[in-house]
Amino acid sequence: MSRHPLRTALPAALLACLTSAYAADAERSASPDAAAGTDTLAPVVVTALAPASALSFTTDPKLPRQPVPASDGADYLKTVPGFGAVRNGGTNGDPVLRGMFGSRINILTGDGAMAGACPARMDNPLSYVAPETYDLLSVIKGPQSVRWGPGASAGTVRFERRTPAFDAPGARLAASTLGGSWDRNDQVADATLGAPAGYVRAVANRSEQDDYADGDGRRVPSRWKKWNTDVEAGWTPDADTRLAATFGRGDGEARYGGRGMDGTQFKRDSAGLRFERSGFSGPLARVEASAYYNRADHVMDNFRLRDPDPIGPMPMPMEARLDRRTRGGRVATTWQFGAWDVVTGLDQQTSRHRNYETIDMMGIGGPARRVPDARFDDSGAFAEATWRIAADSRLIAGARADRARVKDLRTSTGGMMPMPNPTARTRPAARRSAPASCATSAIWPPRRPRCTPASAAPSASATTGSCSRRNRGRPAASTRSTRSSRRRRPSSTSAPNCAAAA
């Protein structure tokens, strides 16, 4: 028996390793890949959406996906490479594309914009989208197209419904249901009845889920419930013409663990009209026109889906009601000149935001009215040309011009401690309906008297100036001849005004 067993075991182990390595090298040298000097690796399977081009994706949102069907548009877009989401709980996430979100992503449903009402994006546009009720999802990454509205520095997302025409009278029906943990249950139904001359289609869905429990068994506020119904009626006199009208409505609620309020109403009202015509002779290939109206009526509070926190920032029951109406239209023509395709068109969008004001400070009682507080208008013209260089190559160039206008209609800001809004503009309706009084601003050089509602003018006792012909050319005593005072509109409590009748 050897006195040093390690001295004999170690050389034996090294000899065995060298022998096995030599055998492996001999086996690889005998393989067919040895002559080419390459090694064969185990196959790797990747499951993802195949891009239609380098910067665009097109897919059917009805296709099965993992882990479960999406509860809203942001939940579905997370499966597209490049997209993420700012989570708000169980649903209503805010999409992020290449690190950009918000208005940098142009989101369209049936060529129309569905803008949310909450300033904190509790009801972002994709909160009103049920992906399984649409037939086509198109994503354009980056500002690679000028045809679908202004902005879109991050990209454009379009949800579309494309109902195939009927060759003979008939019907189509598709339905599905889902059940899962934490009381998740979904139902979707899509029914179409039609003939060669036209069709009627109805799409409806319902989806809900309860709160879930974390690893310690604590209940996490995240439950939600949604439903949507849309009806489309189409007229197809021939294979090249289609006129379709759509009407839709939806609602829902969502409980949030990271917000001071829950969303207790996500009401949606939609209407649209679309016309398509192709098959022309000559360079004109296609004409399409569409008009839409979308309204988001959103309610958030801290008492319907939770109990107010007595030691939190909102210990009393409080409610906020907002709505936003967006309407617009688009006209586009497609021209073909040999290897060139040229798309030209016009689009317009108008959006009105309103706040629900009540006498009660908590906003849950007393007389109420909707008060407009913001107005957005945009009109644009665009042209985009595509040159088909070869079967696998093309060159795209486009130009777009927009005129945008935004008006702040709030009379005060500051919430619980309101302050005069320096950017407020008097609404035309208020000027027409209220009695007028003559008022002059404390500026130099003086300007002509300006008429404002009597409710905004101070009493005669607070006046420091006069509207008489004798004093119109003289500055008020408190006037400062500066550029800032010339531009700033005085508040109703400090501006020199007159009590003369208009």
Task: Summarize this entry quickly.
This protein has 3 domains: 56-141, TonB-dependent receptor, plug domain (Ferric Hydroxamate Uptake Protein, Chain A, domain 1), CATH 2.170.130; 167-420, Maltoporin, Chain A; 434-473 and 481-501, no CATH class.
Question: What would you note in describing this structure?
Answer:
This protein is mostly beta strands and 502 residues long. The chain folds into three domains: 56-141, Beta Complex (Ferric Hydroxamate Uptake Protein, Chain A, domain 1); 167-420, Maltoporin, Chain A; 434-473 and 481-501, no CATH class. Helices cover 8% and strands 45% of the residues. It has four helices and 25 strands. The chain has an eleven-stranded antiparallel β-sheet with strand order 8-9-10-13-14-15-16-17-18-19-20, with no helix packed on it. Strand 2 (83-86) and strand 3 form a beta hairpin. It is globular, with a radius of gyration of 32 Å.
- Judging from the principal axes of the Cα atoms, what is the shape? globular
Number of strands: 25
How many strands, what sense, and barrel or not for the largest sheet? 11 strands, antiparallel
Indicate the percent of residues in helices. under 10%
In round numbers, the mean pLDDT is 80
The helix/strand class is mainly beta
Ends distance: 124 Å
SSE ordering: HEHEEEEEEEEEEEEEEEEEEEEEHEEHE
Q: What is the CATH superfamily label of the largest domain?
A: TonB-dependent receptor, beta-barrel domain
Q: For the record, what CATH class of the largest domain applies?
A: Mainly Beta
Number of helices: 4
In order across it, which strands form the biggest sheet? 8-9-10-13-14-15-16-17-18-19-20
- The CATH topology name of the largest domain reads Maltoporin, Chain A
**Percent of residues in β-strands:** over 45%
| CATH-derived architecture of the largest domain | Beta Barrel
Radius of gyration: 32 Å
